[in-house]
Specification:
This protein is mostly helical and about 200 residues long. It has a single domain, classed as Serine Threonine Protein Phosphatase 5, Tetratricopeptide repeat (Alpha Horseshoe). Helices cover about 80% and strands about 0% of the residues. The protein contains nine helices and no strands. The longest helix has about 55 residues.
Length: about 200
């Protein structure tokens, strides 16, 4: 009888707790569990998408149709950005400057990672420099990038100004690049050489 009475008391206590807010505690626990499960599923899908993008990116090899398909299906993937950079470089090396510029612009529009943004700015400015579109090169070099990439951006600004015959502006840009370059930087000698040739 005592055991039955204890069970009855526990049942009454559980009902009382449930009505006093226990259902909210239960709801919070269920919501937390669902949130955790959703997060695990989301991370799994992201990882799966990244793997698919990397597999497709490895197959691009300069094929513009494959690159376009990859860009449509996995626009935010780092693998897509890398494949686009590689394709843009191949296009540049083959003298297809307008197509190369389009690929770099795609990165600027679709991938906001600082490294990819800086690489696209740097390389697009070089494309414009080759095309002698100096104003376009300077405009793209004013695109905000992470401070760690300031030396290379200023070096290219110096190159653009130098190509225009604007030696004072070129010297100022090279000096800015040197100010930001570490003393042991491999690029330091090249920038000093460019500055000395003005």
């Amino acid at each position: 009888m005592s055991a039955h009475h204890d069970e009855q008391q526990e049942l009454e206590n559980a009902k009382h707790l449930w009505h006093k807010g226990g259902k909210w505690v239960f709801a919070v626990l269920v919501a937390a569990a669902l949130g955790y499960l959703g997060n695990v599923i989301y991370k799994g899908q992201v990882e799966s998408n990244n793997q698919k993008a990397a597999t497709l990116a490895a197959q691009v090899n300069g094929d513009s149709a494959k690159l376009a398909a990859l860009q449509q299906s996995h626009a935010k993937s780092s693998a897509t950005a890398l494949a686009t950079l590689e394709s843009a470089k191949l296009l540049f090396d083959n003298g297809k400057l307008d197509e190369s510029a389009s690929a770099y612009r795609w990165i600027l529009d679709n991938n906001k990672e600082p490294l990819f943004q800086a690489a696209a700015v740097q390389n697009l400015a070089n494309v414009f420099l080759q095309q002698k579109k100096f104003d376009d090169a300077l405009a793209i070099l004013n695109t905000p990038v992470d401070d760690s990439f300031a030396p290379i951006i200023n070096e290219i600004k110096g190159d653009v100004y130098s190509a225009q015959g604007k030696n004072k502006e070129a010297a100022d840009a090279y000096k800015l690049a040197l100010d930001k370059l570490p003393e042991n930087s491999a690029n330091r000698e090249l920038v000093e050489l460019k500055l000395g040739q003005l």
